[in-house]
Design brief:
single chain; alpha+beta; 2 helices; about 30% helix; about 10% strand; elongated
């Protein structure tokens, strides 16, 4: 709710408000990559969010490793 309220108030000022949920463990050099989120991939997602055209802003993104079982 907070993100939506802020987005409604700040969007007219060309300010992009979004929520990013990182649902998983972030990989480190000491771990096997399977089942962990790659820090570079997370950074790419944030960069994409920053560069989105204002005609199609995302307000919610959830990141999780591909191996996670739902």
């Amino acid at each position: 709710g907070l993100v939506q309220s802020m987005a409604r108030e700040l969007q007219p000022q060309n300010i992009h408000v979004a929520q990013v949920v990182i649902d998983g463990c972030i990989n480190t050099p000491a771990r096997d990559a399977d089942g962990f989120l790659d820090p570079d991939a997370i950074a790419q997602t944030y960069l994409h969010l920053h560069r989105q055209h204002r005609s199609s802003w995302a307000s919610y993104i959830e990141l999780r490793p591909w191996a996670e079982k739902f």
